Amino acid sequence: MKVFDQIRTAALCAVLGGLLMACSEGTSPVTTDAEVVQPEPMVFLTSHGALGSSGAAAGIMKPLLEASLQRPIEFKHNQGATAAIGVAPDGNTMLMSVIGVMALNPVLIPGFDMDPLTDLRPVTRVITTPDFLIVRSSLGIKTIQELVEYAANSLEPLSYWHIAPTSIHRVEFAAIFNEFGIDNVKLDTRVGNGPVGAIEAIRNSTLDLLVLTSPYTIPMIGEGSATPLVVIHPTRLPLYPGVPTLLEKGVTTMPNGSWAGLFVPAGTSDEDVEEVFQAFRHAASDPATVKRINDLGMEVDLNESPADFVEYLQSETVRLKIAVDKYQVGTD
Fold first, then answer.
1. How do residues 58-100 score in pLDDT, each as one tens digit?
2. CATH number of the structural domain 131-232
3. Which backbone phi and psi does 254 adopt, to 5 degrees?
4. How far apart are the C-alpha atoms of 173 and 243, rounded to whole Å?
5. What is the DSSP letter of 138?
6. CA–CA dist 164, 100 (Å, integer)
7. CATH class of the 42-128+257-327 domain in this structure
8. Which residue ranges make up each domain of the chain?
9. Up-side HSE of residue 270: CA atoms within 13 Å toward CB?
10. What per-residue confidence (pLDDT) applies to 20?
């Protein structure tokens, strides 16, 4: 029995010694995959589609945003004008929306039931996007002056389409037609809302004029189906240095084209707003990311702060209200 007791004691000591060694080496219990807590995704809403300027820019920025926020991002595109309104302000949702929804619609649509300054919380402008007035190349028109002369002498009105009755492009067309005295035109409603039908109509030479953002127009210009007449942007584009700005032509109501900005639900904390703002600053500081966005004809253009974006949004609303009234733009 003494031999057995000695063996049992030795075995027990060996087990205890192994446990003590494991503890001394910092070994921790094994954790299964099921016990690993994954971070909750940040839901990224966009008012328009994934292929538009705002959706495309957001997609390019996604990897760096995820790295900064230390959580995955889940996109939900085409969420419309009221996206993020009434959503819980818990730091889990952000929205990319555009000039038409946030600055134009509140002054264009009677009874528009959304105020981006109170129903949402502005964070920053993210991108600015030049808008081009293009003409189908088969007309042979090369400049805005030639367009004015052609329209004045044509027996048939020039057809145009503004993408949607409440889009910024409708106001841009109104400014161009009014400021240059072009009235021999006809709205072609057969094209249908959205850019797809309008692009196809330009390529098929069944639509004469179109105003649209650079990600859509640059490919048409490059392939030769469209000719740019003016760019609606503060400066000429390096890609098309010979194309004048609308501002150069004296149209002061349209100094810039489109933009997309970032918003979060109303009531979101200052801390969460700052976290999202800094994530976008991180993405905007990466040269490769900026180049990919520039190659689509857009510019990364963040505000200095959320407060700066609020002031910009207010100024854009005032500017567009003046344009809507001056050109008597409606929604019919």
1. 999 999 999 999 999 999 999 988 899 999 999 999 999 999 9
2. 3.40.190.10
3. -125, 65
4. 17
5. G
6. 10
7. alpha beta
8. 42-128+257-327, 131-232
9. 2
10. 37
